[in-house]
Amino acid sequence: MIKQAEISGWRQARRRSARDAIVEAAWALAREEGLAGLSLRELARQAGISPPTVYAYFDSKNAIYDAMFGAAATQFADRMAEPYQCEDPSELLVAAAMRFAEFCTSDLERYQLLFQRCVPGFEPSPQSYAPALRALAGARDVLALNGITDTRHVNLWTALITGLVSQQVANDPHGDRWTGLIEESVAMFLTHCQRAEGRRPVPAALPPEGALS
Amino acid sequence: MIKQAEISGWRQARRRSARDAIVEAAWALAREEGLAGLSLRELARQAGISPPTVYAYFDSKNAIYDAMFGAAATQFADRMAEPYQCEDPSELLVAAAMRFAEFCTSDLERYQLLFQRCVPGFEPSPQSYAPALRALAGARDVLALNGITDTRHVNLWTALITGLVSQQVANDPHGDRWTGLIEESVAMFLTHCQRAEGRRPVPAALPPEGALS
DNA sequence: GTCTATATCCAGATAGAC
DNA sequence: GTCTATCTGGATATAGAC
User: Fold this and answer.
1) Which chain A residue is nearest to residue B33, measuring alpha carbons?
2) According to the model, what pLDDT value does residue A199 have?
3) Cβ contact (<8 Å) for B184 and A156?
4) pTM, whole model, 2 decimals?
5) What pLDDT is stored for residue A12 in this prediction?
6) Which of A162, A177, A185 has the CB atom closest to B166's CB atom?
7) Which of chain A's residues have a Cβ under 8 Å away from the Cβ of B154?
8) Contact between B160 and A158 using a beta-carbon 8 Å cutoff
9) Which fold is adopted by the domain A62-213?
10) For residue A4, is pLDDT > 50?
11) Helices (DSSP H) in chain A: which residue ranges?
12) Which CATH number fits domain B1-58: 1.10.10.60, 1.20.950.20, 1.10.645.10, 3.30.420.100?
């Protein structure tokens, strides 16, 4: 015999997978037409449903953007958290920066939504943003492994790496005019910060994950 | 007696000033409603004309964006070219970076149009873009004064400074969490590049202004 | 939940008189 | 050059039958 709770579970799973299918179609469409050109009519057409049906799953267009953001942020956090082959802290920092750059340049629309924030009235909800905070915490950990804990230096790190990537994406989307500078940039950064922070030893335990931003 | 050429000159001047007035109104509106929210109806209303009259001066909405871009790019080049109070090359570099940051953070919409490029179907025409190239050439000159001529280092410079500014604008628009790092960043950059380029003496004559990009 | 049909609104752009 | 009036087409979102 089938219990009520199980039926409810099925329903929820079905509903979630239908939502996922719509989000998937939305991403496919956004990659073709650009993020701003996402229309609910086209989205419904590609997803094989009628336009009003979209509203059975999402309250508004921005709710769709939010789900797209959440999916992208999860991909981001997962990708950055995958194991690294190297062990030397400075190599780890280079590898993380390169992975970040590769993640960004491999899907420009995703990069735009996640990091550029140029969809008119849209801002991600805290839930959708949460995975991105995970990834940022990971970056802090890698910096800490290199003896870098000063907030100023963490900020400098984000500026340096996002600066390289944004120049790359904007001015040479399929080349490596800026991403090819990552290794040198990291060396410059490490030399500067480790000198400034007095080549502190790596702390035995990683710092707690408070105050991310 | 009035010559035909003078009348024609008047006409052109009148036309240009009418165009300028529309562009001015467009900027005022964009600062209120956001760049993407610029509508021709509202623009006409604020400029004191009817919507179709806009088309007597601009072929399309993108032509208006282009004129807005041109005006902003001119402001940018002019501001960056104003005389500096300091003479030491490294101080000059810091001053230029700070001036750039101040220019960007003092008008976020202008920054968005000039450097973020997130208006859907719009790309600036070469004419409108030209002043920005002038400013970039100026940056190269200041770098050259510091003995930095390697293209890689010029690219690193643009990435570093735009990275600081873009983080500032995106995450702390009215504070100085990243712009406050400019002085330290420039020191880091100079130490690195001058070491790498072997503390070359400043060339007697500035390099020619070819191959900007 | 899904559909057809439609409401409502606003955009950019044009026609043609004056 | 400027206007009134309008075209054309797009958008998000809703009503109500099934």
Assistant:
1) A120
2) 67
3) yes
4) 0.90
5) 84
6) A162
7) none
8) no
9) Tetracycline Repressor; domain 2 (1.10.357)
10) yes
11) 4-33, 40-47, 51-57, 61-81, 89-105, 108-111, 126-145, 151-171, 182-196
12) 1.10.10.60
B52 touches strand C (CB under 7 A): yes
3-class SS at B155? helix
Q: In chain B, which stretches have pLDDT less than 70?
A: 1-7, 199-213
Distances (CA, A) of A177 to A158, A181, B171: 19, 7, 26
Query: Mean pLDDT across the stretch A150-156?
Result: 98
Which of A106, A118, A124 has its CA nearest to residue A176? A106
Question: CA B123 to CA A104: how far, in whole Å?
Answer: 22
Residue A16 one-letter amino acid: R
Residue B184 and residue A120: Cβ atoms within 8 Å? no
Tell me the two tokens of residue A85: 């082959």
Give the closest residue to A156 by CA, choosing from A190, A133, A106, A132: A190
Taking only the tens place, the pLDDT of each residue in A11-44 is 788 888 899 999 999 999 999 989 998 999 999 9
Across A107-121, A148-162, B97-111, B149-163, least confident range: A107-121
Q: Choose the closest CB to A34 out of B117, B120, B181.
A: B120
Give the C-alpha distances (Å, rounded to integers) separating A147 from A94, A97, A196, B13.
15, 17, 11, 63
Question: Residue B145: enclosing H or E segment and its boundaries?
Answer: helix B126-145
